[in-house]
Amino acid sequence: MFRAKSRQYYRSNLGNIILPPTEPGKEMILKSVCSLLQRFSKDTTGASLSVRILAIKSLSTFFYLAMTDYFRSNIDAMAAYVPGEQPKPGSQIIKLNSNENPYPPCPEVLEVLKNFDSEWLRRYPNPYAEDFRQAISKALGVKSDWIIVGNGSDELLNVVMRACVESGRKVVYPTPTYVLYQTLTQMQSAEIVEIPYSEDYELPLEELIAANGAVTFIATPNSPSGHVVSMDELRKLASKLSGVLVIDEAYVDFAACNALDLVKEFENVISIRTLSKGYSLAGIRLGFGIANPKLLSGLYKVKDSYNIDAIACAVGAVAMSNQEYKNACVQKVNASRTFLAADLKELGFRVWDSQANFLLVQSGTGNAEYLYQKLKSEGILVRYFKQPRMEDKLRITIGTDKQNQALVQVLKNLLYEN
Length: 418
Description:
Layout: H1 26-41, H2 49-67, H3 73-77, E1 94-95, H4 107-114, H5 119-122, H6 130-140, E2 147-150, H7 153-164, E3 170-175, H8 180-187, E4 191-196, H9 205-211, E5 215-219, H10 231-240, E6 244-248, H11 260-265, E7 269-274, E8 287-291, H12 293-302, H13 310-321, H14 323-346, E9 350-351, E10 358-362, H15 368-377, E11 380-381, E12 394-397, H16 401-417
Helix pairs in contact: 1-2, 4-13, 6-13, 7-8, 7-12, 9-10, 14-16
């Protein structure tokens, strides 16, 4: 049964064009700068030549920036999201920093690429990626009109934000988590409410409920920790929120539970998934969301018309259709995760329990940045986050057993030399 709710999830002005307000006082500021430039240029200030030159340079820079004010003030103030390092093609790097699957996609994917009909390159693709939606529907037992497809799951996170969030609305999430949530919120000039996880990553449930965001993000399994949030906690959260609950299930293929039942139970819940992890398809940028059609109706208003290309749609359809291959790869990754966790614990690392394709680890010496740099110099990339509560930790993607053993050996050498 679906719970009947009458809620306003979307921005009130969705569908209307909004003109940006004129910045107050800008003309007066520019006049003042011009006046100061004239004074310093004519030596009417009594300042030394070097001070005048420095002042002229600074004021000229300020004047230039003021006159070339291309961006919204919130965009100027924010920092861009920084993805994991990408080595050059052909380089002999062990890449354990972006949570990619170490195994290739299913054989049918390569057959689709080899035999793709060029006629479909000339035409626009289906705006709903219908073949892919049908494959998802069959694989997961969800009606196709409950599915929205995105150019990677990140695009769908962006679509939710553009549809539901504006200045004056709150976006809520526990931290540490996926940093992109912060970036997307800043893009919308919305209020950020970050609620810290405990050291053991217990969900701050009551605080999240009290914050009651227009959008609440919960990643499960969470990155960078790898822990899962219980379905009971998510159910209680969904039942108490008036806004949209986004359950980011990018790593769900490696986990023991998922949120599909909650999507069917609550109109305000959307599960967002990707083919980048379990399906080994990070290179084609393909994801999907599952939600009640009423919730999806507003998202379709802001989705790009043809956001999924024909090749990605065809590749995604065959990948979803071969669940047996995906599950076999997942089993290998999960087995390797267990072995790697044990090896790292033997080296003195604290290792958080993970149901994702990575491990969050903490060295007994706390020198995470040093280890990150030394591993990089040895041709092994892992992820280091220079942010609160993460400065002394590393996130390590699960590679093949051979790659994992190479990592362990280098770490052993580094730790012993210290």
